[in-house]
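Help needed: design a sequence for this.
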């Protein structure tokens, strides 16, 4: 508190008014910059919500049923030059994963390495895809 002085109330009022004016100025500056930030984010394409993911079922089969034995899945994204870019690897006969739109290749190999298969699938225009590969 300010000492008991004849100017204390006036000084206290003046300080309070100055602080309120300063906060109002800062708030106005902040509010005026917000639209610029969101505009630049939309130009740069940074918003994560813009790219919906597609659901993919990976399933290895034997004798027209689930393989029920260990296999290794390796999923590659295929870029415009036809090059493969590793996306994910899984060790199970089936799995549900989510991927961004694009072209992909799934490679599946039995754990003993005797059988290996591959399948290309397109997620550019679909929201889900079943990748079922017969291992026999």
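Sure. Designed sequence:
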């Amino acid at each position: 508190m300010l000492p008991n002085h004849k100017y204390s109330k006036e000084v206290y009022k003046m300080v309070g008014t100055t602080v309120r004016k300063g906060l109002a100025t800062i708030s106005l500056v902040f509010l005026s910059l917000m639209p610029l930030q969101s505009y630049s984010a939309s130009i740069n394409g940074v918003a994560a919500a813009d790219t919906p993911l597609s659901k993919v079922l990976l399933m290895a089969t034997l004798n027209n049923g689930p393989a029920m034995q260990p296999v290794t899945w390796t999923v590659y994204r295929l870029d415009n030059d036809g090059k493969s870019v590793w996306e994910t690897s899984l060790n199970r006969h089936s799995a549900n994963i989510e991927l961004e739109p694009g072209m992909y290749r799934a490679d599946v190999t039995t754990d003993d390495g005797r059988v290996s298969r591959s399948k290309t699938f397109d997620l550019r225009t679909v929201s889900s895809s079943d990748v079922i590969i017969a291992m026999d």
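Residues 33-48 have pLDDT under 50 and may be disordered.
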